[in-house]
Amino acid sequence: MGEYMILMRKCLTFPDRWSMFFKQLIKEIYKLGVDSLWIVVIISIFIGTVIAIQISLNISSPLIPKFTIGYTTREIILLEFSSSIMALILAGKVGSNIASEIGTMRVTEQIDAMEIMGVNSANFLILPKMVGLMIFIPVLVIFSMFTGIAGGVAASYSSATNMTPAAFEFGLQFYFNQFYVWYSIIKSVVYAFIISSIASYFGYNVKGGALEVGKASTNAVVMSSIMILMADLVLTQIMLT
Amino acid sequence: MIEVKNITKSFEGRAVLKNISAVFEDGKTNLIIGRSGSGKTVLIKDIIGLLRPDSGQILYDGRDLTQMNKAELKALRKEMGMLFQGSALFDSMTVLENVMFPLDMFSNMSSKERQKRAEFCLDRVNLADAGDLYPSEISGGMMKRAAIARAIALNPKYLFCDEPNSGLDPKTSLVIDDLIHDITVEFKMTTVINTHDMNSVMNIGDSIIFIKEGVKEWEGNKEEVITSKNQALNDFIFASDLFRKVKEVEEEELKEGIKKG
After folding, report:
1. Which residue among A17, A105, A108 sits closest to B104, beta carbon to beta carbon?
2. pTM across the whole model
3. A122 to chain B, closest Cα gap in Å
4. Distance from the CA of A29 to the CA of which of A156, B52, B55, B109 falls in 20 to 30 A?
5. Interface probe with B: pick from A35, A101, A109, A116, most Cβ of B within 10 Å
6. Chain A residues close to B82, C-beta within 8 Å
7. Nearest one of A197, B56, A236, B200 to B192, comparing CA atoms
8. C-beta separation of B150 from B98 below 8 A
9. Of B171, B201, B163, which is closest to residue B30 (Cα–Cα)?
10. How far apart are CA A186 and CA A183, in angstroms?
């Protein structure tokens, strides 16, 4: 914990050169954010479809209106899937990427080379990743919300379920609380900080060789996932109760 | 000039450097030699400030690195260039971008001037055509030369090289040695090289210190290293059959010369 705080103190300072920071920031937004769009879209469509089908199969009582399927699908996607579950998936993809990249730079002395030049390596390497992911993760969450719901809508057209598209769409609009979208986005920004800072910490402190880089990458994903779940609980308590 | 005075360094109670003192002069290639695990790398890391010695002084033209605050150390580091054992080029950047990196970070030159300076450095190490390639696309020798170009981009006063010939064939090693030596003389730098390559010692050893188990055992130059009577140094140097035979031939020639008068 102490080492993590020291690294964050070193990292969270003004960059040596703003022009280099923005150059790195654009690269990181593209690498960590834009390159993750495809996986977010694919997973969201399929999960949205599956959620809608499963709810429709489980709600067979004539006493429960059909629009409940659309309503429940929307609530699951907005409240938990597009932010928390997506963050767990991104912790795997982005977190391991960050930890292995920085870890490899550590074991191949690239970080030492920066330090020798007088560059604040933590600030140069980590800050653009943190800021980049925090900027772009709301975009990923919004994409996930839209594509997840689109998947649900697609499922409502299937004859295998007991839904009708009209009822599903009515359910999607029923008792809509705009705050849930903001709740999801705020959570995702916190998760972006968790993923990028924890993965960077594990990568930056690698000692040894390729084997240790692999271990650091795994540890980064495990620790990020645990911290995301804990943050989910705390943020939900703070924002929804 | 860099002066090291009574440096000691321990890790978990194990002394790695024991009271080492040395002087590394301007315009010379100063070599630190010794077996693997003798403390060479720890000494060079102490000198460049990557590690803090337990006691002693490291004077860069009179400025004590061990007493510097972060800002002073950062300023001093802009006067340093370093060639790492594995080159340590940034994988995500092209060779030209690697050389431009210190210029981008610290110089006040315009973009064109920075590029011109980087191209000059690449040309100086005969890599003018490799600027657009990534480190993974060039050979080990080219990587070393690119790392030298990056190290000299900011025109440093002090150049440090950690095992510059590791992983290179003998011919490429000579090219790298000559390049380091020529650059040292040309830019009047204080160059400190950490090596156990005897070809380097004989080729560019203007000033040499020999370390054994964290203790400075001997100091001299490339002419004196062959004729030294220091047993530990001889055990190290003549571990190679080639050098042992060279010494035997030299001694025989010397005896014959004495006989002939």
Report:
1. A17
2. 0.81
3. 14
4. B109
5. A116
6. 112-113, 116-117
7. B200
8. yes
9. B201
10. 5
| A192 contacts: CB under 8 Å, gap ≥ 6 | A87, A130, A133, A134, A136, A137
Give the model's confidence band at A76: pLDDT under 50 very low, under 70 low, under 90 confident, else very high. very high
Q: In chain A, whose CA is at the least distance from the CA of B147?
A: A113
Q: Given phi > 0 = left and psi -120 to 50 = alpha, else beta, which region is B203?
A: alpha
Do the beta carbons of residue A137 and residue A191 sit within 8 Å? yes
**B220: CB partners within 8 A, 6+ apart:** B207, B208, B228
How far apart, in whole angstroms, are the C-alpha atoms of residue A166 and residue A153? 9
Amino acid at B253: E
Q: Cα angle at B167 between B165 and B172, to 5 degrees?
A: 55
Average pLDDT (A142-152) is 92
Q: What is the crossing angle of helices B111-124 and B95-106, to 10°?
A: 130
Which pLDDT value is given to residue B261?
64
CA-nearest of B78, B47, B51, B64 to B157 is B78
Q: How many Cβ pairs closer than 8 A exist between chain A and B?
A: 53
Q: Which of A114-123, B36-45, B161-170 has the lowest average pLDDT?
A: B161-170
C-alpha gyration radius of chain B: 20
Q: Do A104 and B91 touch (CB under 8 A)?
A: yes
A-interface mutation test, from B46, B105, B134, B160, most A Cβ less than 10 A away:
B105
CB of A112 within 8 Å of a chain B CB? The answer is yes
Closest CA to B36 of B195, B144, B235, B165: B195
Tokens standing for residue A66:
């059909």
| Burial class, B188, CB count within 10 angstroms (exposed 0-12 / middle 13-18 / buried 19+) | exposed
Residues 6 or more apart whose CB falls under 8 angstroms from that of B129 comprise none
Is pLDDT of A7 > 80?
A: yes
Decide if the complex's ipTM is over 0.85: no
In sequence order, which residues have a C-beta less than 8 Å from that of residue A106 and are 6 or more positions away?
Answer: A203, A204, A205, A206, A207
Q: Assess A35–B contact: CB distance below 8 Å, yes or no.
A: no
Q: Is A175 left (phi over 0), alpha (psi -120 to 50) or beta?
A: left
Please provide residue B64's backbone torsions phi and psi, each rounded to the nearest 5 degrees. -85, 110
User: For residues B17 and A31, what is the distance between their CA atoms, to the nearest angstrom?
Assistant: 44
Q: Residue B110's CB: how many other CB atoms inside 10 A?
A: 9
**Which residues of chain A neighbour B88 with C-beta distances below 8 Å?**
108-110, 112-113
